[in-house]
């Protein structure tokens, strides 16, 4: 059975102009249950982790100022969120969810976080709706505990935006390979350097996108020999997305997820999936695209 991290506080409390893109965190679990994709017991409520887990990848000065609400106006504006104690609980809980997903995937093969994929968070700052980097913290946790058997980690970031914070955090860490396939003209305007970046031109369609992914990911698995995979499955690659410039159809997005997850399953690689971005004007387009990821995982791992 799948393990899925979800907590209702993911969408609260935020200003009205932030509410729409966050609705998916409420609607997606409802749809998965209504369709019978997973039973109710597949969901678990994550909790904020100990500070030491966050401080593996974030500087103490930034983290403590974040907790105390002492970010400068410029720093707060860069995150896209107004500060509040509830926001900190939300962000630390999301990180705790991905951390617990990593532990569960080691035994169950796969775990998914309804939220997560906060790949724009750097060691010393937040950006682009990301305050703390959940996949980076979970990868660092696995590597810090040799008894877990994880010596090399592959991060597959297929959100339409480059995983700039994740790339910077692991720039000097040879045990983590960062792969980002993203829109060349999308945010962030100043890109970092991942171990492998594949910037895509505006209007990239299903056939072009999938051919490039199929030519790349098997080679990375052969070359890097990872023991664990983190997958960021943002659906902002859709042609309907108002913040993306690519032209994938829902079927193309589904085939993307199926390809990544089938490879992990075939190679018996534990994988944690985080949902990442999705900003189509119709909330149904976002939720349906994310739900397809869970259907694929349920079919593969049961």
Automatic annotation (TrEMBL):
GO terms for molecular function: histone deacetylase activity; hydrolase activity. Gene3D superfamilies: Histone deacetylase domain (3.40.800.20). Coiled coil: none annotated. It holds the Pfam family Hist_deacetyl. CDD domains: HDAC_classIV (cd09993). GO terms for biological process: epigenetic regulation of gene expression. Belongs to the histone deacetylase family. This is Histone deacetylase. It comes from Hymenobacter rigui.
């Amino acid at each position: 059975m799948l393990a899925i991290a979800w907590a209702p506080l993911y969408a609260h409390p935020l200003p009205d102009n932030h509410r729409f893109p966050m609705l998916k965190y409420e609607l997606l679990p409802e749809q998965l249950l209504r369709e019978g994709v997973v039973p109710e017991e597949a969901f678990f409520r994550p909790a904020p982790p100990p500070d030491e887990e966050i401080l593996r990848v974030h500087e103490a000065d930034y983290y403590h100022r974040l907790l105390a609400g002492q970010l400068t106006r410029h720093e707060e504006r860069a995150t896209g969120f107004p500060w509040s104690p509830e926001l900190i609980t939300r962000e630390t809980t999301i990180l705790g969810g991905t951390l617990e997903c990593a532990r569960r995937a080691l035994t169950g093969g796969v775990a998914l976080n309804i939220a997560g994929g906060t790949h724009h968070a750097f060691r010393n700052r937040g950006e682009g709706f990301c305050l703390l980097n959940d996949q980076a913290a979970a990868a660092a946790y696995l590597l810090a505990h040799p008894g877990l058997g994880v010596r090399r980690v592959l991060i597959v970031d297929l959100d339409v935006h480059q995983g700039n914070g994740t790339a910077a955090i692991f720039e000097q860490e040879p045990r983590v390979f960062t792969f980002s396939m993203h829109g060349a003209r999308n945010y962030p305007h100043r890109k970092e350097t991942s171990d492998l970046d594949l910037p895509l031109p505006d209007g990239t369609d299903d056939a072009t996108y999938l051919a490039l992914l199929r030519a790349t990911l098997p080679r990375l698995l052969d070359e890097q020999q990872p023991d664990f995979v983190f997958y960021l499955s943002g659906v902002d690659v859709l042609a309907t997305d108002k913040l993306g410039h690519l032209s994938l159809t829902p079927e193309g997005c589904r085939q993307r997820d199926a390809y990544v997850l089938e490879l992990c399953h075939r190679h018996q690689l534990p994988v944690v999936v985080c949902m990442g971005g999705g900003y189509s004007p119709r909330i149904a387009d976002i939720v349906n695209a994310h739900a397809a990821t869970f259907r694929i995982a349920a079919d593969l791992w049961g």
